[in-house]
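To: structure desk
From: M.T.
Subject: fold request, one chain
Message: Could you run this one when you get a chance? Sequence is below, nothing fancy, just the single chain.
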Amino acid sequence: MLNTYRRMMDVAGAYKPQLQFTLLLSVIASVIQGIIFALFFPLLSALMNQPIEAQRVWTLLVLFGFLVIIEGLIRWKEQDFAWMTSTDVSHETRLRLGKQLRRMPLQELNRRSSGDLNVVMSGNVSEIVLWIGSLATLVIQTLVVPLIAVLVTLFIDWRLALALLVTFPLAVPVYRQMRTLVKGILRDVSDADVDTASRVVEYAQGLPVLRATKQVGAQSQRLQAALERQREVQSQGQRLVNLPLITMATLVEVGIIAVIGLGTIFILQGSLSIPALFALIVIAMRFTEPLAQLTGLASVFDLMEIGLERIEAVMNISPLAVQTPPAQLTHFDITFDHVSFRYADQTEWALRDVSFHAPERSLTALVGPSGSGKTTITRLISRFADVQEGSIRIGGVDVRQVEPTELMRSISVVFQDVYLFDDTILNNIRMAKPGATDIEVESAARAANCHEFITRLPNGYETRVGEIGGALSGGERQRISIARAILKDAPIVLLDEPTSALDTESEVAVQSAIDQLVANKTVVVIAHRLSTVVGADLILVLEDGHIVEQGTHAQLLTQQGRYTVMWKAQQQSQGWRIAA
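Reply: Done. Structure tokens follow.
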């Protein structure tokens, strides 16, 4: 519980004082509630005396009413956090998580599934943070009121107070077993929920492929397996939780019966009055009831603990540190100096002792088979992660000395797989430069050869592109992404062969747009078609994470090495025809 309390305070952030004040109010209200139950003893005694002590009865009833009103007012104030502040905490938590996602290394971000992040950002925040105040005050009430009840019972009859206390030690092992069982199964349930969320996203995005391969419905194995595992884990959890709940309910009943039985014996012996026994029965009911509630709350607390752990795990990911002294980029040549890099949790090197220099305003092409390290080089230029050995410099400045926002301001990236947001074309282009005017956006679109097809759409620039840009063709999406890069006007451009998956007409349009984009820029392009980079200033041939050859097209052909073999193979393939 102390661990959960610490995590709750961390999540509360700037609202920590308000949460602590809420917990203090809950303690005060619970003490008052315990005192209210304690007043049953003198009230019953006054009512059963002969003659009835009317003045004392009215005094106690007035005190009862006063304390009930005070408790109600405190409880009302206590709910401020649960009703209002918790919403602000949820909002702030989501903003903090969003900021963390922007700061964390892209390598770490890519390791997490979309389902996991979706559960953290929406499910964990909504289900956990919104209920922090209510759950915390409920637990305080569950613990404090019985404590006051026991203290009051000590003044009535110490023997019965000890009888009440015996119930609590018996409940402890049941509660601990409950926490152990529940925590394990809830963690499994949480993992199953994350896996299912990821599979649902995957299923929705991959429906065209699933339909083409007849894997929809019951044949969608990955989604079906995730749903089946989720069902099994939830069923197992219900079975495991029921036994401790029944055991605790039995202990509660045994505790009440024990108090009544002992009280009856003491009355027969003449050492306890009947009003005292009635009062003790009321107090015993109030003491044992929270024990049953506490067992039920175990699952809620563990659910909260798991959610807080997930939020904490994301928040604890350290951003890439900026080395001192921080520096600004004024020149934009790129240098790899004996760079070696491997991805997290990988033993094989993705790059090994890679060195090259790409002059400012030059075109450098990366060629080689899949898995040779081409994409890794472009990722490291934008500081996807830090290298384990060597250094990467832009304009003579180590990228580790540049603030991430400053670095990304200097780089435009056009990938082969374009991601457009479910928004208008205007906003998808403008996101590269939020303050851009409509005229600037249109100018970038014209330069990217997409103004004409945009104006033919029903709503022009206000047309929504659909999720991932699904309402547009591949060539149209690619040209919009290039328009976005043109609008950004960064001095460094990274291209991942944006024309390789396009038809001939789209390729011509996109290639023309690229020519507009890369003019007077430092360009690094991943090339699959060697014919597109014949005019490159520098061609790097990669294989197994090493640069095996480098030079211009003409220089590499004279070497009669790996590049020559690739070039001849592609030239020969241009003459292939499909025969009957």
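Reply (cont.): The first strand starts at residue 334 and ends at 341. Let me know if you need anything else for the meeting.
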